[in-house]
Design a protein that fits this description.
The complex is a heterodimer of chains A (317) and B (99). With 317 residues, chain A is mostly helical. Chain A has 13 helices and two strands; from the N terminus they run H-H-H-H-H-H-H-H-H-H-E-E-H-H-H. Classes of the chains: A mainly alpha (317), B alpha+beta (99).
Chain lengths: 317, 99
């Protein structure tokens, strides 16, 4: 690094330390830009792929009301993906590049979406646990040092509260329903609890990016801290439903005033991240098909726009 | 990157929304659309799903002319030394009352 860059980097860090936001045209270290592009595009991909497990239940929702709610939730996820892609584009990466990285498997998205949605209670569990974990993460990101990311997160958090509440309401209805419905609710929490905890990523001591991201204030709270926050908030909610959290080590710790709990199966985590989860291939294929299938629409819309432009020009001439 | 990817990318529009009458339009984000009309309807779907706006502007991102942070110093400097533009520059006796 030459002297000028070192000066710039020093000025950059003191801006961050003073809680000033970084905006698109400001100088920033290459690694800061790269980290943000990676994190924001993966975040966007997660919103987009996140529509797929829920889409599975659109035609199977048990009532018109639930169908309308689920549709609105899925539309929000698509919208959140768009906020995030456009925020990431302010860093100089193109939309097409990001799509290409997703479709080629080069970019990751949240592993949680590689699990299947097997029964209707899964839609409740996703809203309650998956969106609940995402909100815990995203509230911390509202104070991220990069302005466009922080602003996108504020919008996303405002909208996601409905996602979690509608999910919990489904869980309430089912756990107060017939014996079979209650079993479905328990089955859903059994399958979604641990993957939801994995959403916070590796333990702090094993997380490659954490320390630098904390210095840059891209990340404000560590993985383990956020995960603990989620456990402490969610266990009482499961108790209220009369459902059991599938962890025999789970116990209230009077001293720390929070829950002690077991250990995540990190082999499973790594395996799903590596592409071997139950639905990895299906999700990517569905995503690619949707993109390729929509190509003629994009082409036609562009051709129409070109034609209109030409007509206007001819008329003016 | 696949062939024809970036050249076929739909143009980028910046979206500005007036949340209610009496307030300025405020930048909300951006989106891709083939033309201005579709940019408007897409902006409605992406940025106003919960009645966040009563009026939307879309502007092609390439048409936005922006100042750059690097010339912050000399760009704004001409006004920095004109303290007499601020009310506190003037000493008015307390007896005069609020002014």
């Amino acid at each position: 690094m030459d002297e000028v860059d070192m000066e710039l980097e020093k000025a950059f860090q003191s801006k961050i330390d003073a809680e000033l936001k970084i905006e698109p045209k400001d100088w920033m270290p290459d690694a800061y830009r790269k980290t943000l592009v990676r994190q924001m595009s993966q975040h966007a991909h997660s919103e987009v792929v996140g529509m797929l497990p829920e889409g599975n239940w659109l035609t199977r929702a048990p009532s018109l009301k639930r169908k309308a709610i689920l549709m609105a939730k899925i539309q929000d996820e698509g919208g959140h993906g768009l906020y995030l892609y456009s925020a990431a584009e302010t860093l100089g990466v193109s939309r097409d590049e990001m799509y290409e990285q997703l479709h080629s498997g080069k970019a990751k998205y949240s592993s949680i979406f590689n699990y299947p949605t097997l029964n209707w209670a899964d839609i409740g569990a996703i809203g309650w646990l998956v969106d609940g974990a995402a909100i815990t993460n995203q509230i911390a990101l509202c104070r991220c040092s990069y302005g466009p990311y922080a602003r996108a997160m504020v919008k996303v958090c405002k909208e996601e509260s409905f996602h979690q509440r509608q999910g919990y309401e489904i869980m309430m209805n089912m756990s107060n329903g017939t014996k079979e419905q209650k079993e479905m609710a328990q089955d859903a929490i059994n399958r979604w609890w641990w993957p939801a905890l994995m959403m916070f990523g590796p333990h702090d001591k094993n997380s490659d990016h954490t320390s630098q991201s904390m210095t840059w204030k891209i990340k404000r709270t560590s993985n383990d801290e956020l995960r603990q926050r989620f456990v402490d908030a969610t266990v009482p909610q499961a108790d209220y439903l009369g459902l059991t959290v599938p962890d025999d080590k789970l116990a209230w710790n009077e001293e720390t005033q929070s829950y002690d709990w077991g250990e995540i199966d990190w082999d499973e985590f790594r395996n799903v991240v590596a592409g071997n989860g139950l639905c990895n291939r299906e999700r990517l294929q569905t995503r690619r098909d949707a993109h390729d299938g929509g190509k003629w629409v994009r082409d036609a819309a562009l051709a129409y726009a070109e034609k209109q432009k030409k007509r206007m020009a001819d008329k003016a001439a | 990157m696949p062939e024809n990817s970036t050249e076929s990318e739909l143009p980028l529009y910046e979206v500005f929304i007036r949340s209610k009458n009496g307030l300025h339009h405020k930048h909300a984000g951006s989106l891709h659309a083939p033309d201005a009309e579709m940019a408007l309807t897409n902006a409605r779907d992406v940025y106003t799903r919960r009645s966040e706006g009563v009026s939307i502007w879309v502007v092609k991102a390439t048409d936005v002319v922006a100042s750059s942070p690097e010339d912050k110093g000399n760009f704004y400097e001409p006004n920095d030394d004109k303290l007499y533009r601020h009310p506190t520059f003037y000493n008015i006796p307390d007896e005069v009352g609020h002014m």
